[in-house]
Amino acid sequence: MPEGPEIWRAADTIKDAITGKKAESVFFAFEELKPYEEKLKGLKVESVTPRGKAILTSFEGDLNIYSHNQLYGKWIVSEDGEEPDNNRSLRLAIHTGEEAAFLYSASEIEILKDDEVEQHSYIQKLGPDVVHPDTTYEQVLQQYQSDDFKNRKLATLLLDQGFLSGLGNYLRSEIMFCAGIHPDYRPVDCREEQIKKLAKYSLELPRRSYETKGLVTSDDLIEALKREGATRKEYRFYVYGREGKPCYKCGRDIKVKKTGGRKIYYCENEQSANDKD
């Protein structure tokens, strides 16, 4: 599933292509949305906004298209308006003359009026967005310190969009590694300094991934690994997807365990479970 940085980049691409332009045609694959094809035709696209892992495409008037990529959804923008050749199922298309935006494989698409947006079941529960430039360190720290979350295992908590929106499977592994926190810890198990590190990296890593198109590791490490002939896949992450490979900090093998049915990657040495107060 795309995480916050990927959704923000997708929203940027869609926004650049269709914002400020009138929709010459709109296509919905779902029958219940077909009546809106004519209602949206001729309306100007006013904004394209990421909301957690969803995207809100707003039109002049009072209508918004809410879409959530879920596991397999993918947006593709066409500069010439022609649908790209692929074997995915087209769910939504917005044509604005020369350019068009296509959404494939997503099953969660709705039409919302302006006053319904903030009451949407997904949007209303979202925690602070870790990619949004207005989200502050203090807001994120407050989430980690909240009684509502302090007794939940971090490996599960970091996937909860009501805690911090935009985080997902690769980011949780990277955040916990950089903060030096074992996957079995809860916020209540962490020292104050560890909580501060979690808050710090919960903002820094998603924003770095957004700015670098998916890179989480530091520039210095990337350059060193490039000199050794490493591929992008090898230098993109510190631990995610690197089971059995050496930790970039200590050289020990990266481990993997399943929690909540999903894999989390970590270094036993750098993320020791033996330093609780």
Characteristic key phrases:
20% strand, Helicase, Ruva Protein, domain 3, 10 strands, 4-stranded antiparallel sheet, 8 helices, N-terminal domain of MutM-like DNA repair proteins, alpha+beta, 2 domains, single chain
What is the strand and helix layout of this fold?
Layout: H1 4-18, E1 25-28, H2 35-40, E2 45-51, E3 54-59, E4 63-68, E5 74-78, E6 90-95, E7 100-104, E8 108-113, H3 137-145, H4 154-157, H5 169-179, H6 192-212, H7 219-227, H8 232-235, E9 255-259, E10 262-266
Antiparallel strand pairs: 1-6, 2-3, 3-4, 4-8, 5-7, 6-7, 9-10
Domain FPG-type: 238-272
Protein name: DNA-(apurinic or apyrimidinic site) lyase
Family: Belongs to the FPG family.
How do the helices and strands follow one another from N- to C-terminus? Answer: HEHEEEEEEEHHHHHHEE
Q: Which spans of ≥5 residues are poorly predicted at pLDDT below 50? A: none
Helical content (DSSP H or I, runs of 4+): 25-40%
Mean pLDDT: 95
Number of domains: 2
Q: How many H/I helical runs?
A: 8
State the end-to-end CA separation.
Answer: 36 Å
Subunit arrangement of the protein: single chain
Name of the level-1 CATH class of the largest domain: Mainly Alpha
Largest β-sheet summary: 4 strands, antiparallel
